[in-house]
């Protein structure tokens, strides 16, 4: 979650200088010694509240939902709310903001009604991101169900390409997220992600599609992140099949389940099966320098209630690993 190996995409954008992300066509890179760390934040109370929560927890980058991700309908974003959000992001100095799409969206579905709703849903996500000046929508590629996987991969790619075609006037693009491969979910292998991208590229939309790598997901899918030689091999495999220039965002999550379990369960950094030693190598890896890392770790404190201290703790853990400059051994 295997398909024929596509040709490797062009890396012509990889050499651009450090810059604020303002478009899906402009990749973000910063200096390795100042990694862009952040977390997913709730928009409860208004879109701008997510920015406030990001500032409160020490985030330099942010991921949000712009809607209830368990419903198809979505209240419109007013011009005033969009302007307030954009102003809040600017005032906070956030270097990177991304949207995560609805969990209902499945562009690879064999059900034509669901697939069409999913394509329309992706277009809506892109329109809302554009309204908020957000360059990327992170999207799962969907699930095969009872279809042959190769068929589902092609349908997912064509569905994403259709959404990009219908929104061709927009700058916002889609980041296909690596998955754990739970159930019939697509995208657990780099080969499958590469096949999706190659098909979208062939449809003429390559400049508006990239990848979001989730550490928990790739680990649960079977990719090793420790020791250093194994992490190097995993990164080299990603680069060979997909291209590191297409990696725009990383979800930094530990895993409650062991490597190869194909089960998607996030844990706090260093408190799961991936472990602190692997994250110390990962965050210091020179080939990943400057790529934003966004937490999706549990936010509940000891009392079971959401506690901003959890984000601060996980961010501090990652920052501490950077300053420690872990030895690659």
Write structural notes for this entry.
With 329 residues, this protein is of the alpha/beta class. It has one domain: Divalent-metal-dependent TIM barrel enzymes (TIM Barrel, Alpha-Beta Barrel). 36% of the residues lie in helices and 12% in strands. The strands form two sheets. It has an eight-stranded parallel barrel, surrounded by four helices. Helix 1 links the parallel strand 1 and strand 2. Helix 4 packs across helix 5. The longest helix is centred in the middle third of the chain and has 20 residues. The radius of gyration is 18 Å and the shape is globular. The N terminus and C terminus are likely disordered.
Portion in helices: 25-40%
Average the pLDDT over all residues and give the rounded result.
90
CATH topology, what is it called? Answer: TIM Barrel
Q: What would the principal axes of the Cα set say about the shape?
A: globular
Helix/strand order, N-terminal first:
EHEHEHEHEHEHHEEEHEH
Q: What is the annotated CATH architecture?
A: Alpha-Beta Barrel
User: What class do helices, strands and sheet pairing give?
Assistant: alpha/beta
Q: Give the CATH level 1 class.
A: Alpha Beta
What spatial order of strands do you see in the largest sheet?
Answer: 1-2-3-4-5-6-7-10
Q: Give the terminus-to-terminus CA distance.
A: 30 Å
């Amino acid at each position: 979650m295997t398909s024929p190996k596509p040709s490797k995409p062009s890396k012509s954008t990889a050499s651009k200088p450090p810059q604020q992300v303002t478009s899906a066509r402009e990749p973000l890179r910063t200096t390795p010694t100042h990694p862009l760390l952040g977390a997913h934040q709730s928009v409860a109370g208004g879109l701008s509240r997510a920015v406030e929560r990001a500032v409160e927890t020490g985030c330099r980058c942010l991921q949000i939902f712009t809607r209830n991700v368990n419903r198809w309908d979505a209240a419109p974003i007013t011009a005033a709310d969009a302007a307030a959000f954009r102003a809040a992001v600017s005032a906070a100095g956030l270097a990177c903001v991304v949207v995560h799409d609805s969990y209902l969206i499945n562009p690879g579905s064999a059900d034509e009604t669901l697939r069409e709703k999913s394509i329309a849903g992706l277009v809506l996500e892109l329109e809302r991101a554009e309204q908020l000046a957000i360059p990327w929508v992170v999207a799962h590629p969907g699930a095969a169900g009872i279809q042959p996987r190769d068929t589902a991969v092609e349908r997912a790619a064509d569905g994403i390409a259709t959404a990009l075609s219908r929104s061709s006037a927009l700058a916002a693009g889609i980041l296909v997220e690596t998955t754990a491969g739970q159930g019939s979910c697509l995208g657990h292998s780099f080969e499958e992600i590469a096949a999706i991208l190659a098909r979208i590229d062939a449809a003429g939309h390559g400049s508006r599609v990239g990848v979001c790598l989730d550490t928990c997901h790739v680990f649960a899918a079977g990719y090793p992140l420790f020791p250093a030689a194994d992490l190097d091999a995993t990164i080299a495999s990603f680069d060979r099949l997909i291209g590191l220039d297409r990696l725009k965002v990383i979800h930094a999550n530990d895993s409650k389940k062991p490597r190869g379990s194909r089960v998607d369960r996030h844990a706090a950094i260093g408190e799961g099966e991936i472990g602190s030693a692997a994250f110390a190598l990962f965050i210091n890896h020179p080939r990943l320098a400057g790529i934003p890392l966004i937490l999706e770790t549990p936010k509940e404190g000891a009392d079971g209630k959401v506690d901003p201290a959890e984000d601060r703790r996980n961010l501090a853990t990652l920052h501490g690993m950077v300053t420690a400059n872990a030895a690659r051994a």
